[in-house]
Amino acid sequence: MDYKKLDEKDLEYIKQVINDDERILSGEHINEEYSHDELSGTQSYPDVVVKAANAQEISKIMSYAYEHTIPVTPRGAGTGLVGSSVAMEHGIMIDTSLMNQILELDEENLTVTVEPGVLLMELSAFVEEHDFFYPPDPGEKSATIGGNISTNAGGMRAVKYGVTRDYVRGLEVVLPNGSIVEFGGKIVKNSSGYAMKDLMVGSEGTLGIITKAVLKLLPLPKKAISLLIPFKDLNSAIQTVPEIIKSKSIPTAIEFMQREVIEDAEEYLGKKFPDHQADAYLLLKFDGNSAEEIEADYDKVAKLCLSQGALDVLISDTEERDESIWKARGAFLEAIKGSTTYMDEVDVVVPRNKISEMVEYMHNLHHEVDIRIKSFGHAGDGNLHAYILKDDLTDEQWEERMKMAMDKIYQKAAELNGQVSGEHGIGYAKKPYLNESLEEETMNIMRGIKAAFDPKNILNPHKVCQI
């Protein structure tokens, strides 16, 4: 595709629309952070960054860009890990982080309506103040809701409550040609044609720019109790997970963690983890409306874990202890990142009954490839995060060994009927692996959907399924 190179005339038009020079960045005024996302492996600067304040501004800019074939990249907080919000063709970057208002809490319909720049932690705190609960719980709490929707973010509570897609009722979207449309709404059921809203969820900004979202809420559980369960080794811990699932006492979260990652988190946070007796742990959370209501569930699971070889069951029923455990878990990504010179990540998902086989494979892979690999993940839903670390390897060694490790991990996931990404998305960085994992017919359908929304291919080009 031959895109128009941004010039002074284009910049003048943008200035007319925005009418606020502080919300337009160009040239040397573009912060380096706008050139990459959280992992920074994919890097490219936009020609101009526009901090949009409303859907009308985005609509006018998209309409102009569509008419003149100028590439546009939408961006939220930039916390992605696969290059989804990197401006591969330069052009215009639309930053939606200033669109950060919670517009309405509808207690009758159990919904909250927000702009895309609202942070996950802000939304969670707001609804909980009103005794409501927004279950999606990705590890990065400073991510925006628009970004969460764009990647169909999952998180730790997906075992019991599902993922972001399950909580999106309606979306206001600016299409590539500048049209503003609404998909879905406050309705609970909808069999009215194709599921356009669901196409937008997980589309990583390639089909449209989300400018408003109507999200489903639940009543806030009154009580939560965590169990920290040490095992003598990783294999014993992971093989217990399918038994927990089969017990039908489904926890809110089932996380696995290894001692070496916990030590990274301790160093990163400057705080000790509450237990040091084991090499591997399962971390479970149960919630409900009373301690009595959830006691039967966690008691049953605790006994099951002990019968499977757990060394102990530590019940975390105080806020202080609970915070120390979950804060360590939440710091894993940053802690691992801080322990090496550079890293890349794998976000595979496999059927839950294959989780132990996948974890064991990744745990032993570093011997075969001769590269450090650290992993943790959502053991209850089969979503595993593996981080491949560069350390002191030369660039040439890194490229060779990192690619070999990734190829083997994705190949193993495919053998186990898994998928390339459970929650981080495909973006730019993981496209080759998506191409290898899906049939050509499926990829062609995806490209056809992209062409139907964006025949000029100006919106977030080179992402997901695009060549």
Helix content: 25-40%
Arrangement of strands in the largest sheet: 5-6-10-8-9
What is CATH's topology name of the largest domain? Answer: Uridine Diphospho-n-acetylenolpyruvylglucosamine Reductase, domain 3
Beginning-to-end CA distance, first to last residue:
11 Å
Spans of at least 5 consecutive residues with low confidence: none
Write down the overall geometry.
globular
Mean pLDDT: 95
Question: Judging by the overall fold, what is the CATH architecture of the largest domain?
Answer: 2-Layer Sandwich
> What is the strand tally?
18
Strand content range: 15-25%
Largest sheet: 5 strands, antiparallel
Structural class: alpha+beta
The tally of structural domains comes to 4
Number of helices: 15
Q: What is the CATH class name of the largest domain?
A: Alpha Beta
User: What is the C-alpha radius of gyration, as a whole number of Å?
Assistant: 23 Å
Keywords: FAD, Flavoprotein, Oxidoreductase
Organism: Anaerostipes rhamnosivorans
Cofactor: FAD
EC number: 1.1.99.14
